Amino acid sequence: MNDSKQTVLPAIRQLKDFDWLLRSPYETIILLESHIGQLRSIVTTAKRANKKMFIHADLVHGLKSDDYGADFLCQDIKVDGLISTRKNMVLKAKKQGISAIQRLFLLDSLALEASYKKIELTKPDYIEVLPGVVPHLIEEITARTQTPVIAGGLIRTKEDAETALKAGAASVTTSNKELWKHYIEK
């Protein structure tokens, strides 16, 4: 994802936070929700500020999560990373040479087993697990897949972030601006 071992990946929901992150030392920014018409401007602005933009493809309003949508994000918008629950999006990102993150929702044992099968097919660069506050599953997924895990969802406190990192998460994603600030100062 990056060479500086960024342990917190700030995930923005509101564009007002985008300006703050552009001035921050964070190298990688995750865009959670957006409108398809905003993407080009956001990614261009980020690249001018030497930031890497990772897009949650499933959360782009107006974009269909199919191969054409993936091509649009990879070839036209030129994102640095693509995050999706959909295997076709992850496979397309990998084929395009874009960082591919397979997003998993840890709902129950059946969902976890289905996720392992999906990971075998997609071989993503990273796996984002939600919720990210289940340390024993972070350990299990990391060990079983040998793929770096990003803990996301419900990371609300410094303790949540530290627990996930101690369990083996390569990074945590959070939209909590106070956590962003804490890890800058750390």
From TrEMBL:
Functional description taken from the UniProt entry: Regulates expression of the glpD operon. In the presence of glycerol 3-phosphate (G3P) causes antitermination of transcription of glpD at the inverted repeat of the leader region to enhance its transcription. Binds and stabilizes glpD leader mRNA.
Coiled coil: none
InterPro entries linked to this entry: Aldolase_TIM, GlpP
GO MF annotations in UniProt: RNA binding; transcription antitermination factor activity, RNA binding
Keywords: Glycerol metabolism, RNA-binding, Transcription, Transcription regulation
GO BP: glycerol metabolic process; positive regulation of DNA-templated transcription
The species this protein was found in: Alteribacter keqinensis
Top-rank taxon: Bacteria
Any matching Pfam family: G3P_antiterm
Protein name in UniProt: Glycerol uptake operon antiterminator regulatory protein
Gene3D superfamilies per UniProt: Aldolase class I
